[in-house]
Amino acid sequence: MDKEDIPRSEVPPEPYHVLKRYRGIGGGVGRLYEVRNDKTGNAALVLMPGPKGELRPKEDWEVRLTSHVAPPYLALEVERAPVDGQPQQLAWMLDRWATALVRIEERPEAQAHLAAGAQKPPPPPETGHRSFVGTVAMAALLALGVTPGPSSTPEPISPTAPPALAVDNSSPAAGLFTSGTDVIALPMPQGPFKGQNRPPCKSRFEVVLRGGCWVEIAARPPCGDDAYELEGKCYLPGYTAPRPPQALNP
To answer: What gap in Å lies between CA 207 and CA 23, rounded to an integer?
Structure first.
């Protein structure tokens, strides 16, 4: 059943979309409709006033009812309540729903509707203004002999993370950590560099760290672009300077 088949005064309000009306449920309850919420896709029921105007709420309430098996409990959660709202109105509303549900509890279509769960809400319709403007623009392009091509909307650009740099032990400067272009730190590599002194260290100023010989300097982190940091101290790799050639006496 569409809304056009129902008198305007009896149409359930938005966002409820009428699927059918339950007839033959007896008097004193009102008009009961099987509906679906166009915003959430949830299955729902709506009671509207009958010919004698039996349904006249006095306050605006929004509540959520929950029945749970394990652990067993019933919950009534108030999502919106009027100022100085009276619990008697909640009792009146729940009593109306109890009466209406009892009268359709044996109907298979009611059970199927309520147990079907939510469905994907329909996409919002285009407004008449947007549709009219689009039609006029298309007609103008065709009149000029221009064939509209595919959409040129640029693809969204996702932010790229700075490249992860691995420590290469072949060169001291290869362990440099950067963020784009700015130097952050030179962490001490896990092993000695090629050509670096190894234990036993040759100088009394050298200490053994991570398998290599290192010289602690007076600077403190950040150690700059020529020293390496470890546990809050700055070090230089130990290297043995080549001996200068000695002249041979004739």
So the answer is: 93
